[in-house]
Write a structure and sequence with these properties.
single chain; 128 residues; mainly alpha; 5 helices; 56% helix; globular
Length: 128
């Protein structure tokens, strides 16, 4: 019985984490739509959590790689262009620790990467 309860709690936590990530990614996608139309074309369909953690190939890294101009990478350029110095996590571009969810960093990164993959596929349509 204890095992079943633990499994249910873990599943519930994963569902909360997925919803949390999807909300942030949707917000980030809307922001990119406004400031960088077509951004989703720069994101690979097999986008991984490791890529999301790399400022050169993360969502902002890919979307803003052509506009580095003095910035260390596309992530920094995107943060500057979008005026998000301390709010990247609110838009799914960086991790934050969701309230009420006991998750470790890699689970959070993976949830965000999954949400970005879903968002990109949705925007590219059924042929992607």
């Amino acid at each position: 019985m204890k095992t079943s309860l633990k499994m249910l709690k873990k599943l519930e936590m994963l569902e909360k984490l997925e919803r949390w990530a999807e909300e942030r990614v949707a917000k980030g996608a809307r922001l990119l739509d406004k400031h960088k139309p077509g951004w989703e074309q720069a994101i690979p369909l097999r986008f991984t959590s490791a890529q999301l953690q790399d400022p050169k190939v993360c969502v902002l890294g890919k979307a803003y790689m052509e506009e580095i101009n003095g910035y260390a990478n596309g992530f920094d350029a995107g943060i500057a262009h979008l005026a998000l110095p301390h709010r990247a996590r609110d838009y799914g571009f960086d991790i934050a620790y969701p309230p009420g969810i006991d998750a470790f960093d890699e689970a959070i990164w993976e949830a965000l990467a999954l949400a970005w993959r879903k968002e990109v596929r949705k925007r590219r349509g059924p042929k992607s």
